[in-house]
Write a structure and sequence with these properties.
Elements lengths: L1 H11 L39 H7 L2 H26 L4 E2 L6 H16 L8 E2 L2 H30 L5 E3 L3 E6 L2 E10 L5 E15 L5 E7 L6 E4 L3 E8 L10 H6 L3 E10 L4 E10 L3 E3 L1 E3 L3 E3 L5 E3 L7 E3 L5
Parallel strand pairs: 4-12
Antiparallel strand pairs: 1-2, 3-5, 4-5, 5-9, 6-7, 6-8, 6-10, 10-11, 13-16, 14-15
């Protein structure tokens, strides 16, 4: 059985995991600290390949509200200008002696039409103004329908806020060493059936002696846990089949080793499967250390998980 596993692992080594196998000396990290891919896609088209709904769902909350408010204000400014130029005499109840005050009242009337509130103080009496008001009311209904859908989509979309240690350690493990990092969920919701997949990538040469990136899916001591209420130290035992075997920190940096992590679990609040990804680069490795426990028991006997201590480590003596 061990021979079959060894053959499978050798077959995995060198296989691409969907990333570039060519070597680029000035290449940045593949996955950003927030879990997004550091990859820019171009299509040669003017509009590009951005899906507006996907974009509005995935941008930050700050950008989301800036976009929504900017669109809302911009639409009302545009319609207010339409009303003003087709003639303020077509709006009954409009008051104001100056151009700015008259336009400002057109703006407030536009807000009433756009939101379908309609206070009645100002109302259209001309054909042109009625056409514009009818179109604006329709545009307002569609805009608020889309805004409501996008807001619901943002709240209903399951999120995974997983905190990773800043460093990845080469720590003592049994009679040898292990590559270790620690993770913890920052959300109060419980995650279950968590699975971890870890791949490594490094600079090497192919059969012709040409430089190339190689990939290997490494074996984990435990790759699945039933419940994830606290922290989880994910450990890769470094043996003869691992690319890290007998490599020093200097050698790890020389081959520009990268570690790609994919976590998968079930969120019982949303009743959906969530994914989370992360990357460690060679500069994140620390030799001869182990993680400190980020939790303790208080006076009442309750377990306290201190997220600020997730990733804290202390140096230890390594066996020769």
């Amino acid at each position: 059985m061990s021979k079959i596993r060894s053959i499978i692992d050798r077959m995995r080594e060198g296989q691409d995991i969907g990333l570039d196998r060519n070597i680029h000396n000035n290449r940045q990290r593949t996955i950003n600290p927030d879990g997004s891919f550091n990859i820019k896609k171009v299509t040669g088209k003017i509009i590009g390949n951005v899906n507006p709904y996907h974009w509005i769902i995935t941008i930050s909350w700050t950008k989301y509200w800036i976009v929504i408010l900017s669109f809302y204000i911009g639409m009302n400014i545009s319609f207010a200008t339409f009303y003003y130029f087709i003639g303020i005499e077509q709006l009954s109840g409009l008051i104001g002696d100056t151009i700015f005050v008259q336009w400002l009242n057109c703006f407030f009337f536009s807000v009433q039409c756009f939101t379908t509130v309609g206070f009645g103080g100002i109302h259209p009496i001309g054909v042109s103004a009625n056409f514009v008001a009818a179109f604006e009311s329709f545009a307002g209904l569609m805009t608020f329908a889309i805004s409501t859908g996008s807001l619901y989509g943002r709240f209903s979309r399951p999120i995974s806020r997983i905190k990773y240690s800043e460093n990845i350690l080469i720590a003592p493990y049994k009679e040898g060493t292990g590559m270790q990092f620690i993770v913890a969920s920052e959300l109060s919701s419980a995650l279950m059936e968590m699975e971890a997949t870890v791949n490594v990538s490094w600079n090497d040469t192919n059969d012709k002696g040409l430089p190339i990136r190689k990939f290997q899916q490494v074996k984990l001591e435990i790759d699945k846990i039933a419940m994830f209420p606290m922290s989880w130290v994910i450990n890769h035992p470094i043996d003869e089949e691992s690319v890290l075997y007998n490599r020093s920190i200097e050698e790890i940096k020389a081959i520009r080793l990268e570690v790609f992590i994919l976590l998968k679990g079930f969120d019982d609040v949303f009743s959906q499967i969530i994914y989370n990804r992360h990357e460690f680069v060679a500069e994140d490795f620390v030799w001869g250390a182990k993680f400190s426990k980020p939790f303790y028991v208080d006076e009442s006997g309750k377990i306290i998980l201190d997220l600020s201590k997730v990733g804290a480590y202390e140096f230890v003596q390594m066996s020769k």
